[in-house]
């Protein structure tokens, strides 16, 4: 089977498939544009240190009128961390979109296997759709970067510019990002479609990854910062966040399994039904919980970073771009969590349609079915989101101002309210789909 045939088979034909491809492309475009912006920040000339004959130190600001956030060696790592922090929820949303629609994908692959398709052909079909969506997102990343450049260079006053002028290096970075998004999209598609054997989940490697990420983040944040080598601090902080994010993504299934066992022991009908659904879809529910936890991690870091930027030693004019970036990261994390939960809940209803109809046929009221749905959504939303926010708040350990502590506490409170509102909102939005799934006609679904 050649690539063209694989594309004809695997291309999205339904509205849900097209929406999933657009989400993959949108997440890839957002993450790619931010990566190009991070590479551009590195081209901004930094502040030079000159040692005077009398032993004093003079700081020479480079010409060009850039913001001190990208000029000063002690502040540039924070800007780079904020930009890369924005990439995390975008990539998490893309991953959630790739893994959505597992029931339809499994049916298509089974039909192809029965028709005589080889395992290599099945992998090619699974790779081509997300790879094309990733390539499209990589092309759109150039537009995202141009939008950021217009906002942060052309429209910004000289004292608030964060990005340099356009350069051929931006084109090179664009091509690199397009290639990366294509490769990562194809790899994500292959990983999502790979058959998984049912075997006991080994918890200790995943928990060890989380512990290593937490220890690395605390060590980097608590250590004194060497302003003469800001790149080291940025690299270590980003590495710690990446390790912690990967660990949190892998522990979602552990959280879901533990909560399912606890709900099953409660004895109430709603909890027992919710536990059964969580056990049946432990994989998709675990991925949703992991994505929500990563979104919470981004929110927690945003709260700590905002508090540090609002400390008295920083002027509001200089800190305003950084605060806006932090707020944008928080908004993107919230959107990623909301869209991820909506995708997972919709896919859940499609997969468990016959089970919902059977439960309704046995006498379960629509209100009971809605309570079961809300309980399952709460399991993959409230706990993971709050855990991520608390872990992300460790970024503010080095802050000495009560303002930073206040922003962290405010972030935790807002995250709790958002988790509850998100669960209620998605449950209400999916009420028509739940009613259709509970209809007797759903019992005829094969």
From TrEMBL:
Keyword set, alphabetical order: Membrane, Transmembrane, Transmembrane helix
The UniProt record lists the keyword Transmembrane helix: yes
Transmembrane intervals: 21-42, 75-95, 131-152, 172-194, 206-225, 231-256, 289-310, 322-344, 377-397, 403-422
Domain of life according to the entry: Bacteria
Protein name in the entry: Permease
